[in-house]
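Narrative summary of target 7.
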Amino acid sequence: MFLVLTVSVYAEYVAFKVKLDVKERIVIGMLLPKEASFAKWKIFNDLRNVLSPTEEEARQINLKDLPTGGVTANWDAVPEKEIVFGEVAEKFIVDALKKLDEQEKLLPEHISLYEKFVIRKKE
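Modeled conformation, tokenized:
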């Protein structure tokens, strides 16, 4: 007769911290879903608020809407800001970037984020 003991190992999630420039923060905001469950919507809404440029940052980068629908800005005018991502938000961003990659739909503005979120996970 064998007695099998299982040991449950609880690995606590360590928040992911990364420095992002204003443009990267805006691009991540565009990746976030517009619809979600109540709990996830709260997480994504809070993250949108953290990622969005402040009025001062928008003034410093001279953020302007273009008539064609894009924006123009001096992205380097504001230093990178460290952003802390919780487990749900981090997983969503990693999955969204991987999906874009699989579909061959990554744009130039996604590349630095892919390197910071996805490739660093393989290290």
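Residues 16-122 form one domain.
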